[in-house]
Amino acid sequence: MSIFFIILGILCLFIFIAPLPGIVFNIGSALGIAAGCALILYGIFRRKLPKKAHKALHVLAGLALAALLVLGGLQLYGTKKQPEEGQAVTMVILGCRVNGSEPSLMLWNRINTARNYLEVHPEVKAVCSGGKGDDEHISEARCIYEKLVQAGIDPERLYIEEESSSTKENIAFSKTLIEKEGLAPDVLLVTSDYHCFRAMQLAEKAGLKAYAWPARTASYLVPTYVLRECCGILYTWIFG
């Protein structure tokens, strides 16, 4: 049995370390790597642990697994709330990391998802939302806008909100812009699939009727970002 936990820990380390060259190290990466190390250590020392320690570790592992299943299930549920065909909505495209002046893989997925919807629904207007980080040459909103225009989307349909630095600000500042421009008040949030649930929660807290149009996350990034988003959901529940 010890070898099982060691192998499981090594697999866990691989899953969370392998994507690191292509992403920013985050709390999901940290927790995944910590879990892998804990499994390996447990496999090595489990026979030397007292029974009470075994029971405590089993309880902690059970609680962690239950929390992961619940929070992961909510993330999946968040991708299912979509508007009726023909319903008037304003799209809000939530920003993500820009590498210099080019979209990261995650942002490319959001841009392409938004473009596909806008091409099929020519009546829909969109807010490109996201500020500029210290290591980014242009704002996330500007990057989204430029790539959509290059793809053939009429710039008259696009609005830019480039002051926000968090999902909460994305929603709040986009709402202000929507109201100022007299756009459809219901919003269709385009963001990564794992992020839809929390984004809709924040939108509803801001007084918006929100729907989601999820952008697919690359399979090798799913564990890291699902775990990261679990922490994000808990943080939103506790601190708003």
How would you describe what is shown here?
Helix 3 (51-77) packs across helix 8 (222-239). The model has no long low-confidence stretch (mean pLDDT 95). The protein has 240 residues and is of the alpha/beta class. The strands form two sheets. The protein has a five-stranded parallel sheet. It has a two-stranded antiparallel sheet with strand order 2-3. It has eight helices and seven strands; from the N terminus they run H-H-H-E-E-E-H-E-H-E-H-E-H-E-H. The longest helix is centred in the N-terminal third of the chain and has 27 residues, at 51-77. 55% of the residues lie in helices and 12% in strands. Strand 2 and strand 3 form a beta hairpin. It has two domains: 2-77, no CATH class; 90-239, Rossmann fold (3-Layer(aba) Sandwich), CATH 3.40.50.620. 37% of the residues are buried. It has helices spanning 2-17, 27-45, 51-77, 105-120, 140-150, 167-181, 196-205, 222-239; strands at residues 90-94, 98-99, 102-103, 125-129, 158-161, 187-192, 210-215.
List keywords for this structure.
Rossmann fold, alpha/beta, 5-stranded parallel β-sheet, 240 residues, 8 helices, 55% helix
pLDDT < 50 stretches: none
Number of helices: 8
Sheet with the most strands? Answer: 5 strands, parallel
* Helical residues, percent: 55-70%
CATH superfamily of the largest domain: HUPs
Query: What is the terminal-to-terminal distance?
Result: 43 Å
| CATH architecture field of the largest domain | 3-Layer(aba) Sandwich
Order of helices and strands: HHHEEEHEHEHEHEH
Instruction: Tell me the structural class.
Output: alpha/beta
The percentage of residues in β strands lies in 5-15%
Question: Overall 3D geometry?
Answer: elongated
CATH T-level fold name of the largest domain: Rossmann fold
Q: What's the rounded overall pLDDT mean?
A: 95
Which strands sit side by side, in order, in the main sheet?
5-4-1-6-7
